[in-house]
Amino acid sequence: MLTLKVDSELELRIFEPREAGELFWLVDSNRRYLREWLPWIDGIQAPGQFFSVIQMWQRNYQEGSSIHFGIRYRGILAGSISLHGIDWSNSQASIGYYTAEKLQGKGITIRSVKAVINHAFYELGLNRIEIRCGKDNHKSQAIPKKLGFYKEGVIRDGEYLNGHFQDLFLYGLLSKEWHRRHVHYS
Predict the structure, then answer these.
(1) Is residue 117 within 8 Å of residue 173, measured between CB atoms?
(2) Residue 18 DSSP code
(3) Is the pTM higher than 0.90?
(4) CATH, residue 23
C-alpha cells in the first residue's frame, strides 16, 4: 500500500481494514471536537463501520477516484487526510483532513497537506487542488491560506451539518502556482 514519508516523525499511509478499530478510537475520542466540523461523525458508532468504509476507500484507490491516508505522527494515528473526488478528465481533486485535537499545534496537518499536494502535482500530474472549509472553521482555513491557495469564493449552504446548512469557503491551487513557490527534489 502507498506510504508517503513526510519527515522523521510523520508519514501518511493508506488505511487498511485492520486499522478500523484504531481509526474508530481516534474518531470516538475526538467526537465532540470533530462533530463541530464533520457531518458524518454521528453516523459512526462502532469500529466495524470503519472496516466497511476502509474497504470502500481501498476500492476507490484501486479505481483511481480517491486516496485516504492515515496520518501517523511518531507511529500513532493522529488524523486522516484524503485526496478525493479525483477528476482525471479535468486533472483536479479535493483535499480533506482532520487531526486529533490534542495533537494540534505541532504542524502535523500542514506538513501532511504539503505531502499530499506534492504527490498530487508531481506524482499524479494533477493540475488543480481545492480545499473546502466551513466559514467558521478558522483552524482549517489557516492551512490553505499558509500554503498559498487562492480563496475563490463561497459555496452558500454548501454543507448540511448538525441540523443546519453552513457556507463553505472554497480555496484553489494550480500546479504552476505550487511549482513557482516550491522546488521539488526527487
Answers:
(1) yes
(2) G
(3) yes
(4) 3.40.630.30
